[in-house]
Structures are given as C-alpha cells and as structure tokens.
Write a structure and sequence with these properties.
The chain is mostly helical. It is 36% helix and 0% strand. The chain has a domain at 22-69. It is built from 2 helices and no strands. The protein is flat and about 75 Å long. It starts with 24 loop residues before the first helix and ends in an 18-residue tail after the last helix.
C-alpha cells in the first residue's frame, strides 16, 4: 500500500497565523502617492502650503492621510517634554 505524502498546503490542523504587519496595504499606497507627489513637486505641507522637499516629511504626510482615511497605521509617538527638575 502506497502512502500519500502531504504537501505544505495539505497539512492537517494548520491555520493561517494572524498578520503581524504594522502598516496596512492602504497605508503603503498613501505613502507611495505622497512620495510621487513630492517627486513631481506638487506636495505641499499643511498650514503654510510650502513645498515639501524631504522624504521623511513626505512619508509623514502620507501616513497622516492614511490615519485620517482609517487605514491600519500605528499611533503617533507622543512628544517628549523637556524635563524640569523637581525639588
């Protein structure tokens, strides 16, 4: 009697592990769109409306747009305050 070999897809009792991605696909699309805009010189910053030149700022704008759209993006880290000495 020949025994059947199981392929990786047919493993018994194995379920797909939950995704450990920090950022969703929608977030990466928003960031990519912001980067393209920056390359074309069309990306502007918030209030001042100045042209964005740095990549880091373009990524930040893309992520904030993704947050507003409800995509899976981790929370922003809070600003660290200047430590005052207590007496």
């Amino acid at each position: 009697m020949a025994s059947k070999k199981r392929t990786s897809r047919q493993k018994a009792g194995k379920k797909k592990a939950p995704s450990k991605r920090r950022y969703g696909k929608a977030a990466s699309k928003k960031v990519a769109a912001a980067m393209r805009e920056r390359k074309r010189g069309k990306l502007r910053s918030g209030r001042s409306g100045r042209k964005v030149k740095s990549r880091a700022q373009a990524v930040a704008i893309g992520l904030s747009e993704a947050r507003r759209a409800g995509a899976k993006v981790p929370r922003k880290k809070g600003k660290k305050r200047a430590g005052k000495k207590r007496r």
